[in-house]
Structure formats: C-alpha cells, structure tokens
Write a structure and sequence with these properties.
It contains three helices and twelve strands. The protein has 182 residues and is α+β, with helices and mostly antiparallel strands. A six-stranded antiparallel beta sheet has the order 3-12-11-6-5-4, with no helix packed on it. Strand 5 and strand 6 form a beta hairpin. The radius of gyration is 42 Å and the shape is elongated. The protein starts with a helix and ends with a strand. It binds FE2/S2 (inorganic) cluster (FES). FE2/S2 (inorganic) cluster (FES) binds next to loops. FE2/S2 (inorganic) cluster binds next to loops.
Length: 182
C-alpha cells in the first residue's frame, strides 16, 4: 500500500526520468501513440484559436457597447454663432392684414403687417410656450392653447400669460424682410 503512494521510490523515479530524458520519442495520448514533434503544432493551433476567439469576442462586445456608450454620452453641441440680423424672407410673404412666423437664429418670430406697418415679436406664448398666430379678424396676436391675446407689439390684452411677447426689430430692405435683435 505504501509503495503505491510513494512517488520518490526508485522505480517511480526511473520511469519519470526515462520519460523526461527524451529516451522515448513517443508519447501516449488516450492510448494512441503520438509523435513528440506534434506537441508544438498542437499548442500553436490552440494558441491561434484562442486569439481568434478572443478577437471575435472583442469585436462583438465593442459592437454591442457602442450604441450604449453613444446613448449615455451625448454628442458635443456645436456652437453656432448667432447672427444679429437675418434676411428671413420676402416682404411679399406678409401682405397687409396678415402675420407669419419666421425662424430667427433659434427663435420663432411672428412678423405682423398691420395696415402696412410691420412689427415683429416672439412667436412663443409666455404662458406655456405654444406658438401664437395672427388673428386678422380681431387685429391681434392670439394663442389658441389657453386664449392669450396680445397686441401686435406684444403687449398683453387678456389671458393667463404672465409676460408680454419679447420684441424684435423688423424692416424691409427692398424686397427682403430683415429681422434683427431689438
Ligand atoms: S400657452 Fe398660450 S395661453 Fe397658454
């Protein structure tokens, strides 16, 4: 019994040294003889396969993480320099008795032609931010959301809005309609 568990017995050491000294050029794997020179080839194949699987895994992981990272980190906002004065359209777009909303930088501005006199104010209602419109039959600016009424120069007539509409400057330059900051 003791002999079986003694790894330092002379018989056992002989057999181990014989195997390590290279006396035998054949190893046995699962009962089959295999050339010692194939060991290196097998190792290289496993190493290559390991790297290939690792590389594919990295590509798949990167592909899965990319949209998550893009979602978490918002893109840097491009700083667009605001202009003080912009040609927003043609004078003919706002005939007498009408009003039209134009884009001025990031703002919406309503230009009103009230009997030939042009005026421009913010088109965003100061109550809850709805866009206003020109109500030609009453000659006023109206917000349909909760009934706010403003004069064409933005002053409050009636309604729930806390503030008048912010003023802008508008002028005709030939055929061009030009809005600038007030
Ligand atoms: S948002 Fe204009 S009246 Fe309420």
């Amino acid at each position: 019994m003791a002999r079986n568990s003694n790894f330092k017995s002379p018989d056992r050491l002989d057999s181990l040294q014989g195997g390590a000294s290279g006396k035998s050029s054949v190893s046995y794997d699962g009962g089959k003889a295999r050339d010692e020179s194939l060991k290196g080839v097998d190792f290289e194949r496993r190493s290559f396969l390991g790297k290939a699987v690792g590389g594919i895994g990295a590509v798949v992981a990167a592909g899965a993480l990319y949209p998550v990272v893009k979602y978490i980190i918002p893109p840097a906002e491009k700083k667009v320099k605001e202009k003080d004065e912009i040609v927003v359209g043609k004078v003919s777009e706002v005939p007498p008795g009408s009003g039209k909303i134009f884009q001025f930088n990031k703002d919406k501005v309503i230009v009103v032609n009230n009997g030939g006199t042009l005026s421009a104010v913010s088109a965003v209602c100061t109550h809850l931010g709805c866009l206003v419109q020109w109500k030609a039959d009453e000659d006023l600016i109206y917000c349909a959301c909760h009934g706010a009424r403003y004069e064409s120069n933005g002053k409050i007539i009636s309604g729930p809005q806390p503030l008048p509409l912010a003023p802008y400057t508008v002028r005709a330059d030939g055929d061009d309609l030009v809005i600038s900051k007030a």
